[in-house]
Amino acid sequence: MTRRKLVAGNWKMHGMAADLVEVEAIAAAAARHSGVDVALCVPATLIAPAVARAGALPIGAQDCHAAAKGAHTGCLSAAMLREAGASLTIVGHSERRADQNETSQDAWAKAAAARQAGLSVILCCGETEAERDAGRAERVVQAQIEKSVPEDASGDWFTLAYEPRWAIGTGRTPTLDEIAAIHAIARAKMRQLVGDAADGIRILYGGSVTGTNAPAILSTADVDGALVGGASLTAEKFVPIIDAAA
Ligand code: PEP
């Protein structure tokens, strides 16, 4: 099955009002490429102003709480993010797994809450360096998918992102063969979980994607796009990745 490529940016804890000019420039570039989907996940404080400047570019969040409301100081529900203008959210990012001890079960609950609120979801999985060195990368990713992917996942709202933790922000990437191998395993696992719907679900690669390595990574078997951190912060760095996907 042919799946449209998706290039999604993750600004992490970067971005002030002055950076909204980058949103505009990225939106303009995305509008030039009708054959590729582009989205930008900004800090929650920037969702509403980014939406106001983004035109047709979908603006997303980077996390949501699993509950609809309640005594959770400092947290944001999926419905709040939706109301602020987000159309998608990342869940299960490895930085949240590491910094906030989030589990695959948490990611599952957050994905379900996001779906309930009308948000699309990019759910992240990926092994640590120690797990890869121990030859366990494939088993770790399979287990994460099994525990975190909602049983009603389908391509119209759900995207999986394979992000080896040791590749995030390090400038290091797996080989193309290693990326292809994990993506094939991830797709097979998804098929076990959701059946034929797996064919419509995009699997993105994330971890130190740049304008230089994007053409090769995005041409790798079963890679349906990229989740991009550092290189999504400016149009100058992000647009070549969008170009490579087009
Ligand atoms: C990410 O944060 O999801 C990511 C892939 O970061 P980077 O591109 O900076 O490695």
TrEMBL record:
Catalytic activity reported: L-erythrulose 1-phosphate = D-erythrulose 4-phosphate; D-glyceraldehyde 3-phosphate = dihydroxyacetone phosphate
PANTHER family, A to Z: TRIOSEPHOSPHATE ISOMERASE
Locations listed in the record: Cytoplasm
Pathway assigned in UniProt: Carbohydrate biosynthesis; gluconeogenesis; Carbohydrate degradation; glycolysis; D-glyceraldehyde 3-phosphate from glycerone phosphate: step 1/1
Main location: cytoplasm
Family that this chain belongs to: Belongs to the triosephosphate isomerase family.
Residue stretches in coiled coil: none
Record InterPro entries: Aldolase_TIM, TIM_sf, TrioseP_Isoase_bac/euk, Triosephosphate_isomerase
Binding site for substrate: 10-12, 169, 208, 229-230
Domain of life: Bacteria
Subunit details: Homodimer.
Function: Involved in the gluconeogenesis. Catalyzes stereospecifically the conversion of dihydroxyacetone phosphate (DHAP) to D-glyceraldehyde-3-phosphate (G3P).
GO biological process terms held by the UniProt record: gluconeogenesis; glyceraldehyde-3-phosphate biosynthetic process; glycerol catabolic process; glycolytic process
Active site: 93 (electrophile), 163 (proton acceptor)
MF annotations from Gene Ontology: triose-phosphate isomerase activity
Protein name (Swiss-Prot/TrEMBL): Triosephosphate isomerase
Single GO cellular component term: cytosol
Documented EC number(s): 5.3.1.1
Higher taxonomy: Bacteria, Pseudomonadati, Pseudomonadota, Alphaproteobacteria, Sphingomonadales
Keywords, in A-Z order: Cytoplasm, Gluconeogenesis, Glycolysis, Isomerase
Top enzyme category: isomerase
